[in-house]
Amino acid sequence: MSLKTILLRTINQRNKFVNVAATAVRLTQEQNQYQGEDGRHQNYRRNVATVLLGSVFLKTVLTENAKDEKEHKSFEAGQKRDDLPTFRAEEVCKHDNKDSFWVIYKSGVYDVTSFLPSHPGGEQILNAGGLSIEPFWNVYGMHKTQDIYKLLESYRIGNLHEDDIVDHTDEELWVKEPFRDKRLIVKTSKPFNAEIPAKMQIAYFDTPNELFYVRQHMPVPDLDAEQHRLQVIIKDGRTRTLDFSLKQLQMFPKGSVRAALMCAGNRRSEMNEQVKPVRGISWQGGAISNALWEGVFLRDVLLYCGVDASDTKGKHVIFTGSDTDATGVQFSTSIPLSQALNPNGRIVLATHMNGAPLPPDHGRPLRVVVPGAPAVRSVKWLESITISEDESPSHWHQKDYRSFNASKTWETADFASAPPIYSLPVTSAICDPANGDTVKVKDGCIEVRGYAYSGGGAKILRVDVSPDGGATWLQAERLQADDAPPQQHYAWTLWTALVPVPDGQTEIELWAKATDSNFNTQPEKFEDIWNIRGVLSNAYHKIKVHISH
Ligand code: HEM
Ligand SMILES: Nc1nc2c(c(=O)[nH]1)N[C@H]1C(S)=C(S)[C@@H](COP(=O)(O)O)O[C@H]1N2
Ligand SMILES: [Mo]
Question: What SUPFAM superfamilies does the record point to (predicted)?
Fold first, then answer.
C-alpha cells in the first residue's frame, strides 16, 4: 500500500492525517530491537539510558531544535488569514493531479500546480497531492527555511477548516539521532547537516571523527554490526544474490584508502553570494574532511561474487543504504561498473574510520568509500550492492548531483540528459585567516593556511596565493600530502604560504588557487561555472583581511 493510500484512508476513516513517516520509522526501530539477544540488550540498555537521561538530554535537544527552528522561522507560513476562503480537507483532497495540485501546511491551503515542473525535488512532490506536506517535510527537513516558507506562501489560496487541522509533530523521527560535537557548524538540524570549522580542518591531516563534516538526507538509522548483512545482487539475465555478514567480509584481504570526502556542494555559498542564488545547503568551505578508511576492497568482493571484469560496458553498481524517506524509498546512488573495478580506484567497503568503528553519522557499521568521487557516491549504512544495466533510479541519483551551464534554469535544465558527476575538479580554500580577520605581521609576513584537493586520484602539484588581486603570485612552500602513488592519490593536501606585507599596508585581499597532477587549475570567477544547484563550486577562493603591524 502506498503512503498516499494510507494517508487517504486515514482521512476517510478519521477525517484526520497521521504521521505515517514517523510510524514507519518507529516500526523499523522496533524490528531492529528484536533481531537478536545482543542487539536487544544493547538497545535495551540504550533505551534505559535514554529514559534516564531523557529529562535532561531530550530537553536540551528539544530546546536547541526549537531555538534552531525559531531562527529559521521568523517568517511563519500556514498562519490563518482572514482575507481568504476556508476549505474542508475533503475538498483539498480532490486536487491531487498535475492539472490541479493543492497542498496543506498547518492552516494554509496552497495551489502549487504551476510550481510542479520546477520543483527541485522532482516528482516526489506528487506524493503530497491534496494532503498536508508536513509529514514529508519532517523527513525532508531542508524545506524548513525562510526562503521556502515564503515561496510556499506565495501560492496561498485559502485556510483549512479548523476541524481538519492536525498536529504533525516530528520529534519521534529524530529521538535516536546520535550525539554531535558542539564545535560543528550546524546548517540544518533535521536532517543533520554540519560543516567543520575552517581552522579545525587544517589542524589535523586526518580529521578527527567527531569533527568530520556530516551530510544526511534523512534520519540516521540505528544499526547493529553483529546483525548487519550486505547483499550483493547480480542482475545479468539470471539474478543471483550473495549475502555477507561483516565477519564473513573479513575473509577478504584488508583494504584501506586515505581519502578526503567532499560534498559536490562544498563552497556553494560563495557561488550563491558572488553570482546569484543557487539551491542547496549553503556550505562554506567546510563540506570536506579527510580520513583513513579501512575494510576490504569492493573490487575483491565483486570479483569473488563472479562479476565479469571483461564485460563492464553499460553496467552500473548501485549502492543502497538503510536510511529511508517518507515514502519508504531507501537512499541510493550508483557508479559505472568500470569505475568500481578499476584497481587504481581503491574503493573500500569500510567498517573503520581513522582506526575506530565508523560512527553512526558516518555509516555505522558499513559504508562504501568511493575516493575521488563526489561524497554522495560513498553510501553510508550500506545494505546492498546491485550490478545492473541501469543507473540507480533514485531521486538522489537522477535529479541531483548533475551540473548545467550558467544559462540553464530550473525550468530548462534536463536532468535526464546531464551526466551524473562521478569525479571532482581541483579546488582549494584558505582556512586561516578567515575573511574579515585581523592578522598580525611577523618578520614582514603573514602566514596563510588552507587545503587543496582534486578528484579522480589526481594529486595537488602546487598551490598559488596572490596578495594583490592576481597581479603577482607566490607559491605555497609547505605542502602536506599523502604519499600514495600517482592515480591513487585521494587524500587532501594541506598547505602554508608566507605572504610578505609591505610596511603601512592595513588591508590585504588574498586569492588562492591549486593545480593538480593533470595540470588542471581552478577557474578565476564563479560567473562562468554558476549552475542552478551550486555544485562543483571551485573558483579561486578570495578573502579580505585586516593587517596589524
Ligand atoms: C508543496 C510545496 C513544496 C515546495 C514549495 C518545495 C520546494 C522545494 C525546494 C525549493 C527545494 C530545494 C531545496 C534545497 O535543496 O535547498 C526542494 C527540494 C526537494 N523537495 Fe520539495 N517542495 C515542496 C514539496 C515537497 C514534497 C511534498 C516532497 C516529498 C514528498 C518534496 C521533496 C523534495 C526533495 C526530495 C527535494 C530534494 C532534496 C535534496 O536535495 O536532498 N518536496 N523542494
Ligand atoms: N545512506 C546515505 N549515504 C550518504 C548520504 C545519505 O544521506 N545517506 N549522503 C551522501 C552525501 S551527499 C555526502 S556529502 C556524504 C557525507 O558523508 P559524511 O556525512 O560522512 O561526511 O555521504 C553520502 N552518503
Ligand atoms: Mo553531498
Answer: Cytochrome b5-like heme/steroid binding domain, E set domains, Oxidoreductase molybdopterin-binding domain
134 assigned to some structural domain: yes
Q: Is 453 a catalytic residue?
A: no
Provide residues with CB under 6 Å of ligand 1.
103, 112, 115, 119-121, 124-125, 127-128, 133, 136, 140, 142-143, 148, 151-152, 217, 279-280, 326, 395, 400
CATH number of 32's domain: 3.10.120.10
Residue 389, helix vs strand vs coil: coil
Annotated catalytic residue 263: yes
* Residue 490 known to be catalytic: no
In a domain, 452, yes or no: yes
Which of 26, 40, 72, 119 is catalytic? The answer is 119
Q: What is the mean pLDDT of the chain?
A: 87
- Among 164, 187, 218, residue at a domain's last position: 164
Identify the bridge partners of residue 245 per DSSP, sorted by sequence position: 229
Residue 378 has pLDDT above 60, yes or no: yes
Given a contact cutoff of 8 angstroms between Cβ atoms, the answer to whether 399 and 532 are in contact is no
The SS3 of residue 271 is helix
Which residue owns the Cα nearest ligand 2 atom 19? Answer: 214
Please check whether residue 55 lies inside any domain of the structure.
yes
Give per-residue pLDDT as tens, 79-90: 999 999 999 998
| Range of the structural domain that residue 105 is part of | 3-164
Q: Which of 220, 222, 378 to mutate to test the pocket of ligand 2 (most atoms within 8 A of CB)?
A: 378
Please check whether residue 480 lies inside any domain of the structure.
Answer: yes
Q: What is the DSSP string of 71-136?
A: HHTSS-TT---TTS-EE-HHHHHT-EETTEEEEEETTEEEE-GGGGGG-TTGGGGGGGTTSBSHHH
pLDDT band (50, 70, 90) for residue 148:
very high
Res 243: pLDDT? 97
